């Protein structure tokens, strides 16, 4: 039998005590409306304390908050302090907003809870304990997402999880990678940025010498540090790309394609900053170049990247690669 | 949602919450001897203390730290040595890997790898071999994690053992040891210099870092 998260007839407290149970469904699902009600003993001999769905969710959130309050607070503080992940301060509320926006749609889905949810929840809890004992912050934060997924699967079902996949995915992007992992990914990216920049700058006819991650030009010297690896913008752009796809592109395959395109776009814009600085230094001097370098680090970087993403999207639509009415070819 | 599942979940969450707050905090295990008593003279090497500046000291956390420069017979290539020991590693105070300490000081990574060093007692240990560059200067850095009876190069394994030992023995003490020398002419020669130095200090470290 299919049962929904919300019943359609809310009942008042005083009526439920006198009403003969019109509820012939004995699945004892929660009821909408009211704070809490006591049912009479049903024909099956169950006298259970039912709470309304709102209360149930609230109680569950209370326990989750109890477990994760410190983890969450430390996470937000980390985002505040680490420029690599500050975009997360925007993305967290946006993710919650996405779920809130879909709440009617989600609650209308038929319940198909699965016991696999329990396995997932156990994994999440183990991760929380291991991360707490081993002072591994990534693990504790990741465990929050896994626990939520597990709860969703165990109580609601796969379809519900699918609907919140995007917000969860966005939150995953906002969990700072362990410093070691971040460094190991950034290191080859740094080198790549250095090498590519050197090639492009010399292609444009400017004499350039590179030693490791340091680029020597006639008027300036650029140190391609970890912050120049572009890794920061890769994550934030991916989040942006996912959000953009969600709001402006209804077809899944195209959404994935756009998300995938954020990687080359991020690398390209990062390169643009480095090469642009080099070129500017040649023709307009050191001060202009340095100004460009710092200015382009902020919003300009983002705006250009977003522009490229929108352009790519338009290109895809215009080229008719995907039929307008439906699926990708 | 179904009532049975819901209440089971609440029960499990309640149990988890209780368990979570009953987690033992790692006990603090102090060094056998204070790092300040680390010998200034090691065989042929003569050492000189180089302090750790206050701003760095404040981000290191609770522990004992030592930074010295040793030279063979007082005049050879300067070998930098750093030991950072934590009697208890908790969120906010864990062994910092040179891979994320050095770049902060302007040293950019050039090479990341591993190396085997043979110790005086015949043992071999694996250490991380890290080459960094700052301006025109290059530095060869060797480092490893030592504590609770182990010498580990991999940071991942170090973390794994940390969690394991935290659960099994309630100990989270450990240290990172780093030696470095300027990479002048040949890498092989600098490696030899550092390896010899490492085998010198390896013997001494056992008298300081708890097994």
Written overview of the protein:
The complex is a heterodimer of chains A (329) and B (211). Chain A has helices at residues 13-18, 53-81, 88-101, 103-107, 116-133, 137-155, 158-163, 165-174, 179-203, 231-248, 252-284, 286-295, 299-318; strands spanning 36-38, 49-51, 209-211, 214-216, 221-223. Chain A is mostly helical. In chain A, the strands form two sheets. Chain A has a three-stranded antiparallel beta sheet with strand order 3-4-5, with helices on one face. Chain A has a two-stranded antiparallel sheet with strand order 1-2. In chain A, strand 4 and strand 5 form a beta hairpin. In chain A, helix 5 (116-133) runs antiparallel to helix 6 (137-155) and helix 9 crosses helix 11 (252-284). Chain A is elongated, with a radius of gyration of 26 Å. The two termini of chain A are 38 Å apart. Chain B is built from five helices and nine strands. Chain B has helices at 3-21, 54-60, 98-101, 155-168, 187-205, and strands at residues 41-42, 45-49, 64-72, 79-86, 108-118, 124-134, 137-147, 150-152, 174-182. In chain B, strands 1, 2, 3, 4, 5, 6, 7, 8 and 9 form a nine-stranded antiparallel beta sheet that branches. The relative contact order of chain B is 0.17. The model of chain B has no long low-confidence stretch (mean pLDDT 86). Chains A and B meet through helix 2, helix 5, helix 6 and helix 9 of A and helix 1, strand 5 and helix 4 of B.
């Amino acid at each position: 039998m299919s049962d929904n998260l919300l019943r359609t007839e809310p009942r008042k407290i005083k009526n439920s005590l006198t009403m003969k149970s019109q509820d012939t469904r004995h699945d004892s699902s929660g009821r909408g409306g009211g704070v809490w009600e006591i049912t009479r003993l049903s024909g099956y001999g169950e006298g259970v304390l039912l709470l309304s769905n709102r209360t149930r969710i609230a109680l569950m959130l209370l326990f989750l908050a109890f477990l994760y309050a410190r983890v969450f607070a430390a996470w937000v503080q980390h985002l505040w302090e680490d420029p690599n992940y500050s975009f997360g301060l925007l993305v967290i509320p946006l993710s919650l907003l996405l779920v809130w926006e879909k709440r009617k749609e989600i609650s209308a889905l038929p319940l198909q809870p699965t016991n696999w949810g329990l396995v997932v929840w156990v994994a999440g809890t183990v991760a929380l304990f291991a991360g707490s004992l081993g002072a591994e912050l990534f693990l504790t934060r990741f465990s929050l997402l896994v626990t939520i997924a597990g709860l969703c699967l165990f109580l609601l079902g796969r379809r519900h999880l699918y609907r919140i996949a995007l917000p969860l995915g966005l939150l995953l992007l906002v969990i700072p990678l362990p410093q070691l992992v971040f460094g190991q990914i950034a290191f080859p990216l740094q080198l790549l940025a250095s090498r590519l920049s050197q090639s492009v700058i010399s292609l444009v006819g400017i004499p350039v010498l590179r030693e490791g991650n340091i680029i020597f030009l006639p008027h300036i010297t650029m140190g391609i540090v970890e912050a120049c690896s572009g890794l920061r913008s890769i994550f934030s752009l991916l989040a942006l790309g996912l959000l953009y796809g969600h709001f402006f592109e209804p077809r899944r395959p195209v959404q994935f394609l756009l998300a995938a395109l954020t990687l080359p776009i991020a690398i390209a814009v990062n390169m643009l900053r480095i090469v642009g600085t080099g070129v500017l230094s040649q023709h307009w001097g050191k001060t202009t170049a340095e100004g460009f370098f710092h200015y382009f680090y902020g919003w300009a970087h983002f705006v250009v990247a977003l522009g490229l993403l929108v352009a790519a999207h338009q290109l895809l639509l215009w080229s008719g690669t995907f039929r307008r009415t439906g699926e990708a070819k | 949602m179904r009532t049975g599942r819901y209440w089971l979940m609440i029960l499990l969450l309640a149990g988890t919450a209780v368990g979570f707050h009953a987690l033992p905090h790692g006990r603090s295990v102090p060094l056998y001897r204070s790092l300040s008593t680390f010998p200034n003279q090691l065989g042929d090497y003569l050492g000189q203390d180089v302090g750790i500046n206050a701003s760095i000291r404040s981000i290191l956390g609770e522990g004992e730290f030592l930074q010295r420069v040793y030279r063979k017979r007082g005049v050879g290539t300067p070998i930098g040595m750093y030991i950072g020991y934590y009697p208890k590693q908790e969120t906010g105070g864990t062994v910092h890997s040179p891979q994320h300490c050095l770049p902060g000081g302007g040293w950019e990574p050039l090479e990341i790898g591993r190396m085997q060093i043979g110790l005086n007692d015949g043992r071999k240990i694996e250490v991380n071999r890290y080459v960094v560059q700052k301006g025109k200067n290059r530095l060869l850095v060797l480092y490893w994690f030592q504590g609770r009876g182990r010498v580990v190069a991999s940071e991942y394994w170090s973390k794994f053992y940390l969690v394991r030992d935290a659960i099994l023995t309630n100990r989270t003490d450990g240290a990172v040891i780093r030696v470095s020398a300027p990479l002048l002419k040949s890498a092989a020669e600098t490696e030899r210099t550092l390896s010899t130095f490492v085998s010198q200090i390896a013997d001494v470290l056992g008298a300081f870092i708890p097994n």
